């Protein structure tokens, strides 16, 4: 996920087939919820 966001302009989080979060890739990388759930940080 981290490599994909580093290469992308925008990022999306899907849960149960629904987009639950979206934004600029750097904002997604900085988001503590994304870090904890998908990037293994925090």
TrEMBL record:
Record carries keyword ATP-binding: yes
UniProt keyword annotations, A-Z: ATP-binding, Nucleotide-binding
Domain of life: Bacteria
GO molecular function, one term: ATP binding
UniProt entry tagged with the keyword Nucleotide-binding: yes
Protein known as: ABC transporter ATP-binding protein
Organism: Herbaspirillum huttiense
Lineage summary: Bacteria, Pseudomonadati, Pseudomonadota, Betaproteobacteria, Burkholderiales
